[in-house]
Design a protein that fits this description.
The protein is about 70% helix and about 10% strand. A five-stranded mixed beta sheet has the order 1-2-3-4-5, sandwiched between helices. α2 runs antiparallel to α3. The termini are far apart.
Length: about 270
């Protein structure tokens, strides 16, 4: 149930139908931050969040292609993005470079959005300044969240790449999966206690994806063909800035910036 949006570097970029349904809902969450034409800017901001997730995945894909991997597609979901590759490189250095490319892309986007925010605020273009500030925050969160050592997210892949030369790929995968599943359970419990349904879905997704990749690596290690490479996926999950309950960090950030934006809107109007 997904639809192709575009092709980048020959890679189909697709959006799942649930993401298309979610965008107007996410736009409504951003509307209180805007003044005039609130829904338009809220929708633009919501779409920008998932454009950033797509660029994060393209960062992985760009390096993967140069390491000899075929990237079949990038799928955008309400819980983030998935880059489906023909295989994950077995060389630790290659896996490290592919894994770190996504957070590096998000970090650069965060810096770019922040610089553009400063310029927009100086020019008095209030709605654009609000949008860029939100996207800067989201990219920072996307970078840091994916660096958590929760396999098969980027941090977990970096950890496996670090451990593979020391204990072998199979054992390194098993250790990374164990840590990833523990963190997934922690995400789920936190989401359950704080009413963050999206975080619970992310926890379930990570837990299942970690087990699927371990079975794939085990099959390769045993020389078996019952689990094909098509079932492997380089998985990268976005943080939930649109969770049902706003995290404390986001509340503090929004409180500090609201006064600035209110003054900016007064001058703009």
């Amino acid at each position: 149930r997904s639809y192709q949006l575009t092709r980048v570097m020959g890679i189909p970029v697709r959006a799942h139908i649930t993401l298309i349904i979610l965008l107007p809902i996410l736009a409504l969450r951003f509307m209180p931050l805007f003044g005039l034409a609130a829904f338009f800017w809220g929708l633009l901001c919501a779409a920008g969040v998932f454009v950033c997730v797509g660029l994060h995945e393209l960062g992985h894909s760009w390096v993967a292609i140069r390491k000899g991997c075929q990237v079949r597609e990038i799928l955008l979901l309400p819980i983030g993005g998935v880059a489906k590759m023909s295989h994950i490189p077995s060389r630790p250095r290659d896996e490290f470079l592919i894994a770190v490319a996504g957070p590096a892309t998000s970090a650069l986007l965060a810096l770019l959005c922040w610089l553009l925010f400063i310029a927009s605020a100086a020019l008095g273009v209030a709605p654009l300044a609000v949008t860029l500030a939100i996207l800067s925050y989201v990219n920072t969160a996307l970078c840091l969240f994916n660096l958590l050592p929760s396999f098969p997210m980027d941090g977990g892949r970096i950890f496996r790449a670090f451990m593979t030369p020391r204990i072998g790929r199979l054992k390194a995968t098993a250790l990374a999966v164990r840590i990833g599943r523990i963190m997934a359970v922690a995400f789920g419990i936190y989401g359950l206690l704080n009413g963050q349904f999206i975080l619970i879905l992310i926890a379930i997704f990570i837990y299942q994806a970690a087990g699927a990749e371990y079975r794939s690596v085990y099959a390769q290690h045993m020389g078996e063909e019952w689990l094909t490479v098509e079932q492997q996926a380089d998985v990268h999950v976005s943080p939930p800035p649109y969770a049902q309950k706003t995290p404390a960090v986001w509340k503090e950030w929004k409180t500090k910036t609201n006064a600035f934006f209110n003054d900016l809107f007064k001058n703009w109007n």
